[in-house]
Structures are given as C-alpha cells and as structure tokens.
Amino acid sequence: MLRRSIVAGGNAMKQMLGFIQLIWRHSRAKTITLFALNLISSVTEGIGLFLLVPLLAHLQKDQPTSGGISGWLETLGLPQSLSGLLALFFALVVVRSMISYVRTLVWQDFQLNLIDTIRVNSFNALLHANWNWISNLKKSDHSNFLINEVDRIDEGVTYTMDFCTGLAAVLAYVVVAASLSFQMAVIALLVGAAVMFSMRAQHRHARDLGENLGDAYEDMQQVVEEGLSSIKLTKILGNEDRHRNLMAKILARLRSQQFAFAKTNAAAGAIFQIVIALVLVGFLWVGVKILELPLPSLMILVLILARLAPMLRNMQNQLNQILHAWPALRNLDEITKLAKDHNDIAPNILQKFDLKDGITLDNIGFKYQSRKSAALRDISLRFPARKTTAIIGASGAGKSTLADIVMGLLAPDQGEMLVDGQLIGDEQRVNWRHSLAYVPQDVFLFHDTIRNNLLWANRGADDAALEQALQRSAAQFVFDLDDGLDTVVGDAGLRLSGGERQRIALARAMLQNPSVLILDEATSALDTKNEMLIRQSLDQIHGDMTIIVIGHRLPTLENADQVVVLHDGRVNAVGTWAELSKNPDAAIPQEFKIDETQE
Q1: pLDDT tens digits for 218-236?
Q2: Rounded to two decimals, what is the model's pTM?
Q3: pLDDT tens, 61-80?
Q4: Which of 341, 373, 394 is where one domain is finished?
Q5: How many angstroms from the chain centroid is the CA of residue 142?
Q6: What range(s) does the ABC transmembrane type-1 domain occupy (predicted)?
Q7: Residue 352 lies in a domain
Q8: β-strands 388-393, 570-575 pairing
Q9: CA quadruple 354, 406, 553, 501: dihedral positive or negative?
Q10: Range of the structural domain that residue 375 is part of
C-alpha cells in the first residue's frame, strides 16, 4: 500500500486546516478574493435580517422597534419609512445575488485549476522519480493515487470552502442575534458549541472510514488493471468468473465502507434535528417568559435559529466529509515528498553525449532492497565505441540489471561508470540517458498512429526522417499498409504482429540518433524470419553506433565484436564468440550450445 497507518490523535480543525493551507498555497490572491466575497455576502445577508425588524414593526404598529436598531439606521442615514426599508431590502438581495454569481464563477475556476495542478504536479513527481524507487511500487497504486485519491482531495477542498462559507454566514447571524438580544445569542452559541463538541467521536469515525475507503479504492484499481491487462490469459485459462468474483468482493467492501459513512452521517443528522427542535422550544420559552422580547425581535431570532439549524447540520456533514477526505490529502503530501526525495537530479543544460572512446564499468556492484543477495558483483567491463557487444547468461545472472546500470536507470551501490573517461554521477545521469536508445523484449506502443508512436522519440522529425528510420529497421511493411504512417496500432500495438511491433520499436530508437543502442532480449520471442530482419537491420548500422545486445541467439553473437558471459552477477568471461565457444570454463548457457548444434 502507498499509505501509512493514520497516526492516532489530532483533531478535526487541524485536519481541515490542511485543506485551507492547500487552497492558500495554490493562489493567495484568489483565496483572499473568495473569502472577501464570502464575508461581503454574509454581511449583506446579516443586514437584510437586521432590516426585517423595523419592517415587521411597521406591519405590527402596536409593536415597538428596538431603539438600538432605530438609532443605527438614523446614524447611517438610512430610511426608516416602509417604502424606504423595502427598497433597501430589495437592493441588498440584488447585491447578494450578484456577489453569489461572481463567487460561484471564481470558485469554479479556482477549484478546477487547483485539482488539475495537483494531478499534473503529482504525475510529474512520479515521472521524475528514479527508476529504482518507482519500480518497487505497484502501477495500480500510481493510477489510484492520480485518479481516485485526487478526486477525494477535490471533494475535501469543496467541502472546506462550503464550511468556511457557512461559518461566515453563522457569524453574521450571531451578530444580528446579539444586536437583538445578547443573552439569546450567547445561549445559541453555547448550545451550538456543545453540539459540535459532542460529535467528536463521529468525527474520528469519519476519518477512519475515509482511510478504509482509500484502501478499498487501491484494491479495486489493482483488480481492474490486472484483469484488463491479463484478459487474453484469462480467456485461455477460463478464469473470467474468478476476475468477476474478485471485482464483486472488492466492490462489496467498498460499498460497505460507503454505507458505513452514510450511516454515520444519517445518525448525526437525526440526533442533530432532535437537539435543534429541543433548543428551538427552549429558545421560544426563554424569549417569551423570561426576557419578554418584542414580537418583531423574537420573530427574527426564531427565523435566525430556523436558518442556523440546517446550516449547522450542513456544516456538521461538511466536517465529516472533510475528515473522510483527509487521508487522501495526507497521502498526497507523503507520496509527493517521497517522489521528490527520490527524484532524478535534473541537469542544468540538457546535452547529449557523443560517445567516441567507450563505456567503462569499474568494480560495479548493485543490490535490490527486496533481495538478500547482490544482483551484480565487482563488474569491471569496457564497451568500445561503435562496436557491438553481446551479453549472455542464465536467467537471473544480472543481464537486465547491468543494462539498467549502463542506461543510467539505476545508480550502482559501488564502483563507477565512465563515458569517454567522464564519471557518470547523479548530475550527468539524465543527460547520459538521453544519449542512448533502448528496445526491450516487451515493446510498448501507444494506442495511436505509427507516426505518433515514432514522434515520441523525436517530435521534430519530418516524414523523410520517419521513412529513413523505418527502412533502417527493416520496417518497410508500414508503407504497404492502407493508411501507412497513419495506421492506428491498437492498444499496446495489438493490431500488429510481434515482429512488426519490434521493428516499429527499433525504428523509434533509430529516430533518436543515439550514441548507444541497447536491445534487451529484443528478439527472443520472434520467429526466425523476423529475427533475421532485425539482425539485418543491426548489420546495417554495425560500426556506426555502439550496440549492446542482451540474451540473443547464436547468429547475433557470431557477429558481435565481443561477447560477455555473466554468471551469478559476475563477469565470467569476455571474448569473441569463436574464442568463448572453445573455452570450457566460460559458463555459456546451455541454450546457446543447443542453438549452435542446430546451426
């Protein structure tokens, strides 16, 4: 799991403050604008309620108007006649409506931009994390984080702003209530504080449910991605029901968490309504029997309480929703921090290497954290420039790890790698990586046209450059397709054969004009014809660039300038194939000996 367990303790306000800080950091100017609009809207609403007192006094001529209110109206030079008060009340409603319109537009623009920024920045942090760290995480966790978790943060941000808007309105109501009866306002505040305080257990429960919901989302994302990625194997094995049952099980767990949260909110709502009804009864009794308030003032106080009741209920629900979303916000901070801590160091200037002499590995060692033994031990090796080096060895010998070291995807735990005598450290690793091309066994093609798949390697390449790369890769079959370069290859290139995908991948690599070309098991799954076409392509560029091939079959080894035999993470032998095939101590894998016999 990407998430850590929730640290015990903390409180609701502190966790809501996390969302407020997120909003503030995104745009201080817009945050201030939004809070100012909320404040102005609340003030106008409070003034509107304030004006209802003299309006009701006009309607009830035998009821006195509060002297304090009349004095304020006179001091501010506002009309006290019925027509004047009605006109002022209408004007306030118009102003508040316009403010609400502007606030909605500003908030919508702010919210969408905030969430898009979070998603893009998080994606960017993962993309720039070093390979050793990110390869140890599940892809489904990445997807869940960027989609579901960010959506939950979006909900938390929305509810936080709604809570702040409601809080501003509550304060406006309290001010109006205090102007009518200070004692009643104090009573209302104390009751409201007591009700919110009594909900602490539900707040903790909402937060815990939010944590469990996040785990359920991660599991669902994993089931979906693995089910769709393995659908061919699933059909062959007849395991459709198994995937369906896994999905149903995860969804049942997910719905259970969602229902539990809905149950918590419903219970809080029922309790809240009963408490508010009790408070309203007591409020009226105190106002009439003890304080003997004038009817207009009492009616406005009752109206304020009637408005506050659903408002406070909504704020209670919003607070639960904020706490429910808070684990996602915590995960955002943790994951982006981890990704940045494991970030590749970006070079000051992006500049490719032009390999002239060769690549030297000096006493290289590397160990994966998840394994007990080292993957590479004391590797000292040289790859001459513009020569072809083949690396062979049994499964687990360290071939792919060695390729990742040479490509700059992994940093060695010990030893050094030098290119033309220059040390490749953290500062040079990205530039070095941009100087080479890589073709793996499992080629990845985007669900797009052949043209756009090629342009990932060189966005500025014209059709002539694309055609040249295809010809150098023995991929002339593209020109015979009905749509040519504009042929859509399908999801992961499934509309093409394995050999066609490999040749498209090789053309994409050629389009980079690399100093070094690395092929990792690139033809091991191909038939003889397609392997011959790939080998012919390599023969065409032999001597023009440095080529490193891994785990290939005999014909390619025979044409290599040197062959390296890896055994148990160490270099066991180096030489030409003719030399190694006569060396009984070279530890050549059995499949190469069989291949030689067949030849």
Answers
A1: 777 777 777 777 676 677 6
A2: 0.74
A3: 554 444 445 555 555 556 66
A4: 341
A5: 6
A6: 32-324
A7: no
A8: unpaired
A9: negative
A10: 358-598
